[in-house]
């Protein structure tokens, strides 16, 4: 049996797991990510890996983008300010003596769902996570499609609404500025609606709050338009939706699928299949292990 270390670096926590080639999570540890000092985080990763009982074939690491996948460098993830332009794979390989494979977190979630999750057995799998932000991945034949420079599926800044809302470094009217959980809550608070997460905005909309209804309608409408565009461009077998907004708001995926069907060509409506992600919070870890094992097959 072969094993890999799967690592999921988040803005809040980092998780490290020992995963078998059958994608069983054998052991896992979690600790707080140091967003200002990547070296401290990598040393903790090294120490955990050295405690694993089984030798590993490699290390797969999931990290928020944008990333330079060709050079193994973290570019400018907003929640990891001290990691900007940090050569992650080089430093972790030096610390562990093991080959490291870096990938965008949404790409790895897509890979996990394509290989062993909701998209298992499908040739073309499109993944979209709707949570704090909006991230995406596309897999063909169980392999990540990265594009010419590794930036394929960096969809957060896709502009759909002229002079629409914006947040952070994103442009006005970007999909993340409309449909992410952060965007939904930010717009709600600007309208005087008290909410800690998007689910609360949904609840207030369901209770009759007109402003909350407008915000949720924008999220449904622009997100379904975006998925309709992706269907026209990529023609996936399956569209997998993950993230807290998609998975925790009642009826969210069904509403999106209904609207997408109404927006594609009539002849293509039966091709629209949108399903929930099934691997939960382990998708990044499992995807990281998939990356190790699939890279060894090349």
Q: How is this structure best described in words?
A:
The protein is α/β, with parallel strands linked by helices and 298 residues long. The chain has helices spanning 38-51, 88-96, 105-116, 176-179, 181-190, 198-206, 210-234, 244-248, 252-263, 283-297; strands at residues 3-9, 13-20, 25-32, 59-63, 67-68, 73-74, 86-87, 100-104, 124-130, 134-140, 143-144, 238-242, 274-276. It has ten helices and 13 strands. The strands form three sheets. It has a five-stranded mixed beta sheet, with helices on both faces. The chain has a five-stranded mixed beta sheet with strand order 11-10-9-12-13, sandwiched between helices. A three-stranded antiparallel beta sheet has the order 5-6-7. It is globular, with a radius of gyration of 19 Å. The model has no long low-confidence stretch (mean pLDDT 94).
Question: Could you provide a short overview of the structure?
Answer:
It comes from Anaerostipes butyraticus. This is Glucokinase. The protein is α/β, with parallel strands linked by helices and 298 residues long.
């Amino acid at each position: 049996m072969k094993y890999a270390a799967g690592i999921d670096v988040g803005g809040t926590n980092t998780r490290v797991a020992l995963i078998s080639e059958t994608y069983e999570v054998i052991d896992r540890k979690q600790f707080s990510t140091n967003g200002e000092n990547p070296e401290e985080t990598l040393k903790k990763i090294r120490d955990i890996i050295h405690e694993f009982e089984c030798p590993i074939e490699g290390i797969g690491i999931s990290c928020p983008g944008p990333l330079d996948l060709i050079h193994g460098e973290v570019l400018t993830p907003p929640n990891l300010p001290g990691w900007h332009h940090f050569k992650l794979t080089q430093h972790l390989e030096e610390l562990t003596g093991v080959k490291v494979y870096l990938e965008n977190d949404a790409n790895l979630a897509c890979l996990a769902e394509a290989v062993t999750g909701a998209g298992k057995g499908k040739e073309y799998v499109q993944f979209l996570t709707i949570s704090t932000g909006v991230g995406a991945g596309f897999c063909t034949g169980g392999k990540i499609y990265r594009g010419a420079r590794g930036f394929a599926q960096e969809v957060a800044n896709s502009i759909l609404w002229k002079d629409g809302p914006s947040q952070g470094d994103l442009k006005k009217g970007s999909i993340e500025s409309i449909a992410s959980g952060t965007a939904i809550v930010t717009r709600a608070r600007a309208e005087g609606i008290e909410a800690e997460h998007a689910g609360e905005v949904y609840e207030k909309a369901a209770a009759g709050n007109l402003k909350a209804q407008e915000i949720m309608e924008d999220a449904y409408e622009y997100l379904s338009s975006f998925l309709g565009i992706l269907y026209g461009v990529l023609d996936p077998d399956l569209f997998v939706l993950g993230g807290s907004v998609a998975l925790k708001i009642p009826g969210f995926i069904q509403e999106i699928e209904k609207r997408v069907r109404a927006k594609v060509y009539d002849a293509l409506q039966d091709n629209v299949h949108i399903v929930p992600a099934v691997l939960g919070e382990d998708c990044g870890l499992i995807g990281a292990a998939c990356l190790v094992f699939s890279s060894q097959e090349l």
